[in-house]
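Assess the record.
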Amino acid sequence: MLKQPENDGLTHFHGFLHADRLLLASPAALADVLVHRSYDFEKPPWSRNFLRKFLGDGLLMTEGDEHRHQRKQIMPAFSFRHIKELYPVFWAESIELCEVVKRELWEQPDKVLDIGHFSTMVTLDIIGLAGLGRDISSLRNNNDVLIENYKGFVSRVTPPIPTMGHGALPSKLNERVKVTTGNLKRICGEFGANKKSRMKMESEEGKDILSIMIRSNNFSDDGLVDQLLTFLAAGYMTYSRIISTLRKFTTTSPDRKALSDPDFDVATLLESLPYPNAVCNEVLRLFPSIPVSARLASRDTTVCGHFIPKGTLLHVVPWATNRDPALWGSDSEKFVPERWIDGSGRCTMNGGADSNYSFLTFLHGPRNCIGERFARAEMRALVAAFVGEFKMRMADPEEKVRPGGRITSKPIDGIRLKLEPVA
């Protein structure tokens, strides 16, 4: 509950067990915490220690100098140029998704499907090929041992209480977590070792993220496993962006014939389509995968000139900031893709907002989402392919989609769409 009015973007409130906390509610305050003094603030140790049991010491979990080092080594894999080279992978898997859904529709008399299941599988397949150089083929019902273990892994990754540690889980659940996590780390270790061997013997020049990291010679075997776990988590746990976008389309949009032309530059076309890109941007604004992120002051510091003592817990809330009427206007809660299209009909980068800090879906600064370009490209391809193949509407027009989840946000009950293939 709010305790007092905001003061230069800092709002005091009481959180779990009545603990004092600060909510960041202005662009200036967000800029201080995320950019100007980003390494003065770290993920709280209780959440970091819990997630480390699953994700190891990959980029998502590290802080300070180690985070700077890892980010520098991984950054080339997410460069603008490299993401452009991955578009054919995104597009091929997007077409595969459409074919699988078409086959499934033949078995559904009412032509209604929960698209969440398919979105999860295709995002896993994409991270497999583009991230690991491995054809997981989950869309084609391939019972890949990595995916079978990972399904159990991600289902247990969220702590039931924010301060609860791994060892405090009920004994049976704790044992299942250890077994599943151990299996997954072993599988990733074997895969990384095999990948290294193939690259040495065959002079393999893979474009996947893992190949780039191996060629850098900056990661130990254990370090590669930690990064693999992080990439798999990112691929599996953000599929809600896709299904949230699809339900916003009721008509076909891009020219699939042009996109299917092998001589056409898929990346250029996908990035140039104003309305589909505007819809994707608006969905990213209204439905951030990480609705809230906590930071703990690791030293005495300041925010907007206000003294912040070491140990102070602060909250960055993309869900609230992205919908703040002071930043987005009176229609901030409404789905308005047109806010992302300027007078010339081209997509804008800020959606009409005055500050970059009005949009926090990928955060900002040195701790922002390193995979933003990857996620946007993947989303463009999947949405463009799907809305080019199907007419769609909600199976129940009155149904309210309920977001849920503690770490990432996704629809609690899935999203059921009535689909009709385009003739």
Observations:
- The chain is about 50% helix and 10% strand.
- The CA atoms of residues 156 and 173 lie 8 Å apart.
- The longest strand covers residues 416-421.
- Confidence is low (pLDDT under 50) at residues 1-5, 158-166.
